[in-house]
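It is worth pausing here to work through a concrete case rather than discussing structure prediction in the abstract. The textbook approach is simple: state the sequence, then state the predicted structure, then interpret. We follow exactly that order.
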Amino acid sequence: MGLWRRHGKGVQLFLGVLIALLIVFSKSYAQSDAGFIYGKVYTVSNTYQGQIRWGKEEAFWNDLFNGVKLYTNNYGDIPKKENKNTSWYDFDWRLSSIWEDKKSSVSHQFVCRFGDIKTIEITGPSRVNLILKNGVKLEVGGEGYNDLGTDVQVLDQELGAITIGWNRLLKIEFEPTPDKLSSAMGNPLYGTIETVRKGNFTGFVQWDHDERLSVDKLDGDARDGKVSVSFSAIKQIEKSGNGSNVVLKSGNTYFLTNSNDVNSGNRGIIVSIEGTGKIEIPWKAFKRVDFSDARNSGLPYESYVIPQGLSGTVHLYEGASVSGQIIYDIDESWDVEILEGMDDEIQYHIPFRNIRKVTPKNYDYSLVELKNGTSLLLGGMRDVSDENDGVLVLKHGENDQEFVQWKNITEIVFE
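Step two, the predicted structure:
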């Protein structure tokens, strides 16, 4: 008791200071803007710097950039790294001979997160040079992909908000986002999605594929007229018949219909979960969403590490195995690229960086084990079914390759 009298006040003071610091830290972490896309936008006449929104959709580093790989570019001009222990950067990235040999007529898509990109150079109405953080330049195009040819919004530090047409753009250089922006385009949508048969998913939310900020609007017809309400006012949305019951934070509930925001015209709800990827839930599998405050705006730009070439061991049916650098589906070669697969109606978009191994189970499905311990049985798409074009393994450089057909693979274990 005497000891407490002598030191108790000091201990109380110490604990009080510690708790105060934890509160301040947690508040600053919760208020961090570092997950928003940020950088310099160069046009034919000016340069702008600030928060960036791609079109009316992508706003976060974990959002996906989509296009089609164009193979006419010379990918051999890859910068060489000093003291490297791999031949990966010496590989001829034109890859033309691979497709000629395999006679694949598939148009190969390129998808990565904005956080993995260093620079985007605009080269045409629907073409860009996309430079990854490791300096690799990829020519990407694609008619019909709304990430190409779109407007770009910038919240410039000096001018304020400006929307720039694609034909005015020269390039975008991405930079780490300040932890606290002087102003922001809105707060991230975050919540828990309840599905019909696949349980719940909690993470950052994209509604109808595009709305993902608190300032975005949910549209529909109420009994007394048309409604356009900010997501910042919404607490819950629950599917009901040919529309949805929308519960506001005020407690008021409205039944809305006649809009693809609230009926079967909805393109789907996407949930972003760190360590997994993006999970796309179609309207028929959706039941309800409960929105809550996000702890932060997502991982910062610095957390997206330098892209590495895929590497690992491919195990074969006859018991043999082959190890080296991997080109998966004769297409994906970097760990920032995306594996896609379906769990019933729900579609997963998983960066290869998050995957530990892929085990084909039959012609239609593969077991995908993530580094966070999650196991997913995925099918319905070429990355995880017998539509896969196979795997090319570079054992000791470009002159020592082995092509493995998908039907001969028992397991792929990534390093």
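Step three, interpretation. The chain has three domains: 38-174, 190-293, 308-414. The two ends are 57 Å apart (CA to CA).
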